[in-house]
Specification:
Layout: E1 3-8, H1 11-25, E2 30-35, H2 46-51, E3 59-60, H3 68-83, E4 88-92, H4 96-107, E5 112-115, H5 127-137, E6 141-144, H6 147-155, E7 162-164, H7 168-181, H8 185-188, E8 196-200, H9 204-207, H10 210-227, E9 230-234, H11 237-245, E10 257-260, H12 265-274, E11 277-280, H13 283-291, E12 296-298, H14 306-310, E13 314-316, H15 321-332, H16 347-359
Parallel strand pairs: 1-2, 1-4, 2-3, 4-5, 5-6, 6-7, 8-9, 8-11, 9-10, 11-12, 12-13
Helix pairs in contact: 1-7, 1-16, 3-4, 4-5, 7-12, 10-15
The structure holds uridine-diphosphate-N-acetylglucosamine (UD1) and uridine-5'-diphosphate.
């Protein structure tokens, strides 16, 4: 019997790893779930364990409000004794928790498995891009969501141990879609299907730049006015803090804007499914809106989800109001017929089967 140690710590890791953790729990190996504590608010963390019916972590670490370098250093320190007993360390995605787990596994001489390997924005100013590249370089098992991701890895000379398995975002979504349909979020927010847009915006490079944050918020007010859409904005705590700090809080109260606290997963799926448009700088929302055939406008200059652009589900609009308005016009009339590039929702079991073979 082998020992698997899975390390997670943020909202998207909890959501997308829930199906993988459950599949790994089903193996005959010992499986320890470690939470770094990178996200810690009820609505950024615990709510997802409840919504996803995910067991509590075996090991809960604490990070609260650490700067990025200490998020990595402290996670590695705190998780060291658990990871030292592992036969495989599993991490997901591109966060500071991901990098900490991957480096820790590598320094301990343990094989590392990376879920969502190989995606690239080719923008090294993003902390996530550095986290992804470094994690992939030290991983033995690389679970790539698409052939594009596999090709990105090959271009960096990473060829062994790569498995294209789809993205567990689809597993999570399919497991919870029926429950999401019972969400009362539309009623609670007095929203009509197709008459609102969903906005999420939290990337460090976007919200720490006052001009970008301001222009995006101004664009949303303009979209609400021009298209008669309510813009529902579940606001990330980082964004809320920065809007206050930059004196932009009045833009959050513009007519047509509905700013709400971060939502649980089921409410979010129900909002996305019924939206006319999604505006976002989130990776997960680009994928989920694509699955729902809801057009997406990505408020960035690049994306590590190019599949969504190629099929017309998504367009890049940056943070300039004229481009955002133009992209919204285009996407509002988009033919919603694209295929889903992220797999059939069996990523969790496929990963577990490969891990089983690996551990023998
Ligand atoms: C992190 C990830 C990002 C991911 C996002 C998911 C990195 C480099 N970035 O960004 O890739 O898209 O998580 O949401 O790891 N905060 C709270 N409560 C919380 C969590 C955060 O108040 O529960 C506030 C704190 O002020 C914190 C700030 O948000 O300092 C940023 O949090 P952090 O986890 O460092 O980065 P995210 O922006 O969440
Ligand atoms: N999400 C959520 N409530 C919110 C915002 C996001 O449940 O208020 C979910 C969303 O459906 C997706 C995931 O969180 O599954 C995306 O996480 P996030 O945008 O924080 O990170 P990213 O995907 O950019 O790494």
């Amino acid at each position: 019997m082998g020992r698997i140690v899975t390390i997670i710590g943020t909202r998207p890791e909890i959501i997308k790893m829930a199906p993988v953790v459950k599949a790994l729990d089903g193996l005959r190996h010992e499986h320890t779930l470690v939470h770094s504590g990178q996200h810690y608010d009820l609505m950024m963390d615990r709510v997802f364990f409840k919504d996803m019916a995910l067991r509590a972590p075996d090991v809960q670490l604490e990070l609260k409000e650490q700067p990025p370098h200490l998020q990595v250093a402290r996670t590695a320190m705190q998780a060291a004794s658990v990871a030292a007993k592992a036969d495989l360390v599993v991490v997901h995605g591109d966060t500071n928790t991901t990098l900490a787990g991957a480096l820790l596994g590598n320094k301990l001489g343990k094989p590392v498995a990376h879920v969502e390997a190989g995606i690239r924005s080719f923008d090294r100013t993003m902390p996530e891009e550095i986290n992804r590249i470094l994690t992939d370089q030290v991983s033995r098992l690389l679970f790539a969501p698409t052939e594009t991701a596999r090709a990105n890895l090959a271009a960096e000379n990473v060829r062994d141990g790569v498995h294209v398995v789809g993205n567990s975002v689809i597993d999570a979504l399919l497991h919870h879609l029926e429950a999401a349909k019972s969400s009362k979020v539309l009623k609670r927010l007095r929203l009509e299907p197709g008459r609102f847009a969903v906005l999420t915006f939290h990337r460090a490079e976007n919200v720490h730049a006052a001009d970008r944050l301001k222009r995006v918020l101004q664009s949303m007010g303009a979209i609400a006015a021009r298209h008669g859409l309510t813009v529902v904005f579940p606001i990330h705590p980082r964004t809320e803090k920065m809007a206050k700090q930059f004196g932009l809080s009045s833009l959050l109260k513009a007519p047509g804007m509905k700013v709400i606290p971060p939502t649980g997963y089921l409410d979010m799926l129900e909002l996305e499914r019924n939206a006319a448009l999604v505006f976002t700088d989130s990776g997960g929302l680009q994928e989920e809106s694509c699955y729902f055939h809801v057009p997406c406008v990505t408020l960035r200059e690049n994306t590590e989800r190019p599949e969504t652009l190629q099929i017309g589900a998504n367009v890049l609009a940056g943070t300039d109001p004229p481009r955002i308005l133009e992209a919204a016009e285009k996407q509002l009339v988009a033919k919603r017929e694209w295929p889903n590039p992220y797999g059939d929702g069996t990523t969790g079991p496929r990963i577990a089967a490969i891990v089983e073979r690996f551990l023998g």
